[in-house]
């Protein structure tokens, strides 16, 4: 039993009965790179690339981007790195994107929608990612933020492939994309659910509004319902559907996410150990039963309490 506990403390994420749930890290810039690479993960599930674009008067040149991606790919050599293309707009406006003032920036031209105005930005970024990938040994996937329709997902995947990037997916962080996950997945290779924005848009509650924190609770049943719907579409299509929002780093919620069929969880490096241990302490059937409990709870608080009380001890 001691040896089991020790082996559960390291290595790939899996349930007690061996269903794999890949454990990955979220990475937001070069500063956290060495700590993230040293953590025991299967790779990067979300490389936020905004850091390259912020605080400048023009978009970073292709060479500069290529060097920055190359550093990440080198640090994660032999592992997976999911690069998310630029998610500017909303809370992260950039002067050179010509976004101007928007009355509702969260509902405006952000993420992949910027491509409607400035297609060159995405092409430059995909070209830089592809060049850096060719110089390193990481397994590089790309995905787009703020996809709302199956057509956007398919168009992004086609763009990525035109740059030689063969594994292209979309984030599911808009309820419309979650509801149509089957059609979204038909046109791309994988999906990654961003529970931060998916919660914001499902509950119509600005994620920056502290006084609405109860509506933004990642245990909200309507959010979990959308996650389950997308995960089931992934299972039917035989395509990976992960979670890369903050929800993935809560060990109890991770059990629920595994129970609805999510195939990977991407989180802050500090959360990896607790999530790994939680998974190792439960069979898939136990995770499924916990997911059933969470989804039938009347609200977020009851869901959290029921799963915290019903889960096996996590130590
Ligand atoms: C999300 O929306 O859940 C997400 C992971 O993306 P970001 O937090 O960068 O918007
Ligand atoms: Mg998001």
From TrEMBL:
Cofactor(s) for this UniProt protein: Mg(2+)
Enzyme class: transferase
Coiled coil regions in record: none
Subcellular location per the Swiss-Prot or TrEMBL entry: Cytoplasm
Main location: cytoplasm
MF term (GO), any: phosphoenolpyruvate-protein phosphotransferase activity
Enzyme Commission designation: 2.7.3.9
Chain ranges of the PEP-utilising enzyme C-terminal domain: 12-281
UniProt KW Kinase keyword: yes
Catalyses which reaction(s): L-histidyl-[protein] + phosphoenolpyruvate = N(pros)-phospho-L-histidyl-[protein] + pyruvate
Keywords, ordered alphabetically: Cytoplasm, Kinase, Magnesium, Metal-binding, Phosphotransferase system, Sugar transport, Transferase, Transport
Protein task: General (non sugar-specific) component of the phosphoenolpyruvate-dependent sugar phosphotransferase system (sugar PTS). This major carbohydrate active-transport system catalyzes the phosphorylation of incoming sugar substrates concomitantly with their translocation across the cell membrane. Enzyme I transfers the phosphoryl group from phosphoenolpyruvate (PEP) to the phosphoryl carrier protein (HPr).
Family of this protein: Belongs to the PEP-utilizing enzyme family.
Protein's UniProt name: Phosphoenolpyruvate-protein phosphotransferase
Species the sequence originates in: Amycolatopsis acididurans
Lineage: Bacteria, Bacillati, Actinomycetota, Actinomycetes, Pseudonocardiales
Full protein: residues contained: 245 to 559 of 567
């Amino acid at each position: 039993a001691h040896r089991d506990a020790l082996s559960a403390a390291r290595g790939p994420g899996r349930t007690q009965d061996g269903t794999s749930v890949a454990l990955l890290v979220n990475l937001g810039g070069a500063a956290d790179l060495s700590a993230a690479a040293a953590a025991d993960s299967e790779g990067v599930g979300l490389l936020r690339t905004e850091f390259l674009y912020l605080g400048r008067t023009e978009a970073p040149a292709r060479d500069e981007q290529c060097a920055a991606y190359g550093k990440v790919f080198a640090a994660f050599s032999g592992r997976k790195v999911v690069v998310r293309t630029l998610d500017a707009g909303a809370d992260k406006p950039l002067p050179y994107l010509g976004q101007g003032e928007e009355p509702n920036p969260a509902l405006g031209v952000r993420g992949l929608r910027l491509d409607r105005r400035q297609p060159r930005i995405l092409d430059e970024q995909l070209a830089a990612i592809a060049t850096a990938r060719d110089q390193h040994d990481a397994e590089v996937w790309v995905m787009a933020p703020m996809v709302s329709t199956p057509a956007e997902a398919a168009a992004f995947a086609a763009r990525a492939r035109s740059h030689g990037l063969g594994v292209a997916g979309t984030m599911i962080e808009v309820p419309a994309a979650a509801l149509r996950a089957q059609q979204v997945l038909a046109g791309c290779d994988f999906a990654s659910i961003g529970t931060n924005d998916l919660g914001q848009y499902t509950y119509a509650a600005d994620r920056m509004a502290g006084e609405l924190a109860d509506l933004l609770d990642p245990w909200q049943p309507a959010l979990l319902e959308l996650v389950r719907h997308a995960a089931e579409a992934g299972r039917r299509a035989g395509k990976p559907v992960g979670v890369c929002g903050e929800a993935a780093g809560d060990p109890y919620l991770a059990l629920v996410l595994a129970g609805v069929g999510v195939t990977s969880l991407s989180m802050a490096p500090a959360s990896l150990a607790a999530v790994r241990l939680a998974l190792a302490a439960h069979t898939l059937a136990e995770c499924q039963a916990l997911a059933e409990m969470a989804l039938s709870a009347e609200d977020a608080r009851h869901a959290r309490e029921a799963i915290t009380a019903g889960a096996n001890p996590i130590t």
